[in-house]
Amino acid sequence: MRLLKLVPDNTNIGFVRLRFWAFGLTALLTVLATLAVGTRGLNLGVDFVGGLMIEAKFQQVPVIDKVRGTVDSLNVGEVSLQQFGDPKTVSIRLPLPASTDEGATNAVVNKVKAALTATNPDVVFSRYDTVSGKVSNELIRNGLLAVFIAVLAIAIFSWLRYEWQFGVSTFVAIVHDLLMTLGFFAITRLEFDLNIVAAVLTIIGYSINDKIVIDDRIRENMRKYRQMDIGALIDLSVNETLPRTVMTSVTVLLALGALLLFGGHVLQGFTAAMMLGIIVGTYSSVYVSSSLLQALGLRAENFDRKPASPAGGNAERVTKRER
Amino acid sequence: MNDFPRWKIWSIILVLLAGILFAIPSLIPESTAQRIGIGGLPRINLGLDLSGGSHLLLEAQTADVAKQRLDLMEDSVRQEVRRASPAIDIGDISTANGALAFFVRDPAQLDSAVEKVRALTNPVGVTGQRDWNVTVVDSTKVTMTPTTAGMNAAVENAMQVATEVVRRRIDELGTKEPTIIRQGDDRIVVQVPGLQNPEALKSLLGKTAKLEFKLVDLTADPTQVAKGIAPAGSQILSYPSNPSGVPFIAVQRRAIINGDELSDANPGNDQQSNAPVVNIKFNSAGARKFARVTQANVGKPFAMILDNVVLSAPNINEPILGGSAQISGNYTVQSANVMSIQLRSGKLPVALKVIEERTVGPQLGADSIHAGIIASVIAALAVVIFMLLTYGRFGVYANLAVIINIFVILAVMAFFNATLTLPGIAGFVLTIGTAVDANVLINERIREEQRRGRNPIQSVELGYKEASRTIFEANTVHFISGIVMLLLGSGPVKGFAIVLLIGIFVSYFTAVFFTRMLAVSYLRRKRPSVLHI
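^ inputs. structure came back:
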């Protein structure tokens, strides 16, 4: 049986040569993403802005304007409606009632339920969340803190394990990935909630994983070919790891594709973010982080100053031979 | 390098077998597990988003605690100075700015006043600090300021009691396996699987529930009562379920019995009419008081008051001497039950406010599990086929590793009684993907080494050696982000992180050790001259 090879053997693509084009494209996309986040903002879920969310599942696809009219007529504040992948499921978001009384929120929920049931007798309310402003502020803070610290910790790790250039290029590449993901959410208006923070952290993890694999290969080659020009060396390393990069991305995308298609509407935004993140992360490993290493002046001859840390699995080292 | 002594092989196999064994209980329904005698093994818990149910985050209004302490201290100070001999004459007692202050009229009594009130304070912790600071201002004024340590201890105490009361009240609802845990200094998380309508729960939790028994003031003029005017010594309270239709009632100000003297309240049925009733029981002090009051007031009603709202005002039919009474009236089975809960659950030392609430219907939960399982199976199948097509024999090894990986992750989760949430399932699917990455790294490296002209044994050896280093580094980074998520993330982020962290360790083990064992034994048995990879 002939085995499948997604990438032919011994590719020699001049990634580094294309880097100015890639930098241009990257800069353009980054600006666009930043603009999108800046102007349109994110469609933050109740987790982050506080408020209440009722998820209603209709038997037939409902007329959204009618649903809006029904809820509007109750005078319970500005309503925002969103359909998930399944058009029969509508999420109804409302601000929390001004009264801090325990019963006030319940009253709103019951009013909405009653009004919708009156017009659509077979509606089912499958979920509802209420989050107070206090909690949502904490959730925002924790979410931002988690992302920030994860990025920082990983950049520091790369710096300590390798050269400082690796730390910087990794950091820049991750910030790029993050901006792209946020831009995606700003443009698609997908709801940005706590689950998405998990997705964002996973994107970071995956993207770093990718960069570590290439960085590790660059480091290995730097030791092997001390005299090689760094551009050629980076090209060689990226090309050598290309089969793995493509293979892994395709496998993970296969798994996520299954989740996107069959995993139910609750996880859709989550999975979409993750798929995008993997594409963006793979791209940034090759173009942003690797090419940046050259721009930052990484040179092979500097490398032997720093001995390989014994902490790493099977890094080369000499030990007494046992008999 | 490619040395696998027998003990190593057996220990790898043993770990994997144990993993599969411990995964089984979580994969089959609980009833089936019990039937085949493994019901006692740990299972993975399902999060509320999968099982359906309600999640509430309650926050204690700790300002209440400060106020209560102040009021209580004011009361004690008044009693203490009155009881002193000679009585100490104080004035202008005030509780402004969170501190208690009063004047001592006779300067000669100042020292004994300070001594008396100092005796009212208590040491906190081991530092010798006391819960109140007593100071003298201008030689006439005594101020008592609560110390931070004292406040913290009081809040802590109130939270312990509140958690217990919440637990008791929820147990009363008869729901299965509620989770009630303290979070931080002033919060309680309540999770009740299967609960669909948390309103009953919330109304039970929201109450501070100050329970009192007072005599109804029969001398009050009904027209005056309707206007809200009470006779001297009485007060008008709301009585929503008053059979007369007027939602107010006049009761005597003085309580005859306090809620904490009630030891039990249960719904029951009247022995003759079989109508639903509420049976109540007092402790010995309460029983004595109740006996005295009922003897003197046969034929008159008394009011049971919860948080200044009259729940019921039954007539005293006869003197009740034993401390047990039966309240009958227009109860339904349900209202008798609610009434007993209200009477029984006692007083919350501090008001709790719901600051976050999430409810998932059982249908959505079931749909999500269903979708998650289908997605996982399809994802796994796609990956398995893809790996097989790409790496042949080594793809089979990788697939075996991934399948065992899944079982062992489930086993570890069950062993730690971890909770599987929806983002957890997503983490699971991702783990399948990254576990494959480890195998891809190894196999690509073997391909590469063979392309460089190395023989199969060298290729496999170098492939594992070089790839292991990369996998280790990559997993370290994954581990860092997983730890950050676990420590800083809330709810769903945590659920995701747990699966991710467990997955990292398990996939490292299966990819690096397990597949290597298979590859090495293949090389030994067949001694291939060329690797088909």
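Chain A touches chain B through 82 residues (CB under 8 Å). The domain at 51-131 of chain A is CATH 3.30.70.3400 (Alpha-Beta Plaits).
thumbs up if we can close this ticket
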